[in-house]
Amino acid sequence: MLNPVVAIDGPAASGKSTVARKLAALLNFTYVDTGAMYRAFAWLALEQNLDPADRVSVSGLVERAKFDLTVSGGAVRMALDGTDPAPFIRSERINAAVSKIAAIPELRERLVIEQRKLRNLAPLVMEGRDIGTVVFTDTVFKFFLDADPAVRASRRRQQGQTDAVAARDQADAARAAAPLTMAADAIPVDATYDDADQIAAKILQICRDRGLSAAKVEAL
Ligand code: DC
User: Fold this and answer.
1) pLDDT tens digits, residue range 38-69?
2) DSSP run (H or E) holding 6
3) Which CATH superfamily includes the segment(s) 5-219?
4) HSE (side-chain half, CA atoms, 13 Å) at 73
5) Helices within 48-191 (DSSP H only)
């Protein structure tokens, strides 16, 4: 039996990470942040003085790099060339580079394979840009979170980050490979006004209505 997957896509700073994390805790599922994987490769490219927009350099890096994902205690740990990149991936430098590297098809292919493998290890709440449209098209638990652009930009500022969210969304939506778009069968969720707890509760209810395993939900 395949493990269930809840797919949560949406633009930058739509609140999807907070909601996905809460939902995973409520369901006792493993939370997967796929943006962190693209950020990790952006970090490694910059470490090696590579241009994150250069397809030839990045596809070489994708071939050379050793990338391992492990699941423990409801979380995923990354190791990229033997280093946990997590402490290095939330900087303004990475915010500025990540959409460029995320447009490179060879990187996307590699990461999609790794993301799909995680389903063999645990039930998942996976968030990103292409989870419902590419990675797990078959799941019936598919959501697209969005929020007013001004609200999203102010969220990032409150987190103390400079992040051109509108420009990043524009780049993510305009790329040829797996552009940011809502899957035809995804449920849109407006995250402008509700807080993360309310949104997670709403999504949980929809998942239950769609038959998400009562046994998992009873772990509440
Ligand atoms: O979720 P985030 O802001 O940390 O994502 C960083 C970037 O990675 C985002 O600008 C686009 C890219 N990304 C992607 O292309 N596909 C995903 N599944 C997740 C993120």
Assistant:
1) 999 999 999 999 999 999 999 999 999 999 99
2) strand 5-9
3) P-loop containing nucleotide triphosphate hydrolases (3.40.50.300)
4) 1
5) 55-64, 92-102, 105-118, 149-158, 165-174
Q: Which residue has the tokens 């050793």?
A: 66
The reply to whether the predicted model has a pTM over 0.85 is yes
How does strand 187-190 pair with strand 141-146?
parallel
Tell me, in angstroms, the distance from the centre of ligand 1 to residue 180's CA: 9
Whole-number Å distance, alpha carbon 60 to ligand 1 midpoint, is 21
CA of 38 to the centre of ligand 1 (A): 6
| Interval 135-173: pLDDT, tens | 999 999 999 999 888 888 887 777 766 667 888 888 888
Indicate if ligand 1 lies below 6 Å from the C-beta of 130. yes
Supply the DSSP symbol for 20. H
Can you give the residue ranges of every domain in the chain? 5-219
